[in-house]
Amino acid sequence: MRFAALIAVSAVWGVTFVQVKDAVAVYPLFAFLAVRYAIATGVLGLVAVRRVPTLGRSGLGAGALLGALLGLGIGLQTAGLERTTVSSTGFITGLYVVLTPLFGLVLFRTRVGAEVWLGVVLSVVGLGLLSGVHAGSFGGDALVLASTSAQALQIVLVERYATRYDAIALTFVEMATCFAGFLAIALALGDLSVPRGWTVWGALLVTAVFASALAYLIQIWAQRRMSAARIALVFALETVFAGLFGYVLKDDRLGWLGWGGCALILAAIVLAEPAAADLLRAASARSPGRLRRRTGAARPGAGP
After folding, report:
1. In this structure, are residues 161 and 222 in contact, taking their beta carbons and an 8 Å threshold?
2. What is the DSSP letter of 211?
3. Which has the higher per-residue pLDDT, 129 or 131?
4. I need a labelling partner for 301 at 20 to 30 A (CA). Which of 122, 144, 241, 284 fits?
5. What is the pLDDT of residue 214?
6. Collapsing DSSP states into helix, strand and coil, what is residue 109?
7. Which among 112, 144, 102 is positioned nearest to 127, based on CA atoms?
8. Quick one: pLDDT band at residue 301, thresholds 50, 70, 90?
9. Would you say 141 and 92 are in contact if contact means Cβ atoms under 8 Å apart?
């Protein structure tokens, strides 16, 4: 259940990449992010208001820290994207599959098994094939790497906080912190205005409700039982889904190297996450060919 929910989150992030790209072409980026997290905060606030007092001062600080890291990651990634190539940004962002277990090991001495490290290696190679790893500018790449570090730290810290605090209240504070940060930037830039048109509002509603409020609530819920390293590997599917939806919706072409990269990332997840292998075995058992083979003897004329 947790694994399937995380795959759904990665798929939503992948498809919203296309929506956000279209939306910010006609609406200022930081205004978009401010409105997005305002809606996410409001959605969670409907059920979180009575739960927030249970967090206490330490829980409020934990949620604010998670929100600051999330906002920092998104802001730095955007600034870096303006200075470097899209493919370089995609590859460097995917490196949180490496940084997450490293931060866990250095900060909290959280050890992971050999199968997870092998999955990390396969995933990095897959990300390289998928993005092409075209050279970008040093300054832009450095900003994106800093963004990736913030995202990896967020995943590591969620593992520490997920079992201590109420998931809905913690996610609410995380979203509210992002909203406050992006609102301050949008106001400082003079970019804040009322969104107009379905292109912008459609992207805002999908990203706010599904790619923000529900996505990070699912992350905190899932990390009560799954390690940060495994979560990072599953989240690497965002790059795969972005490529797939870009192919379907924008007529982007991955090529054989790109599809090979997708296959390696999937192999890495199956190797490192037992739930993935179980899910594939269950899907295989329900495949039409397997069902026909199982029921073939019961067809009329097929024998006793």
Report:
1. no
2. I
3. 129
4. 284
5. 96
6. coil
7. 144
8. very low
9. yes
- 60-81: pLDDT as tens digits: 999 999 999 999 998 888 777 6
Q: Give the start-to-end residue ranges of the domains of the chain.
A: 2-288
CA angle 239, 29, 42 (to 5 degrees): 90
- Copy the structure tokens of residue 69: 């890291």
Residue type at 23 in one-letter notation: A
DSSP collapsed to 3 states, the chain: CHHHHHHHHHHHHHHHHHHHHHHCCCCCHHHHHHHHHHHHHHHHHHHHCCCHHHHHHHHHHHHHHHHHHHHHHHHHHHHHHCCCCHHHHHHHHHCHHHHHHHHHHHHHCCCCCHHHHHHHHHHHHHHHHHHCCCCCCHHHHHHHHHHHHHHHHHHHHHHHHCCCCCHHHHHHHHHHHHHHHHHHHHHHHCCCCCCCCHHHHHHHHHHHHHHHHHHHHHHHHHCCCCCHHHHHHHHCHHHHHHHHHHHHHHCCCCHHHHHHHHHHHHHHHHHHCHHHHHHHHHHHHCCHHHHHHHHHHHCCCCCC
Phi, psi (deg, nearest 5) at residue 165: -130, 160
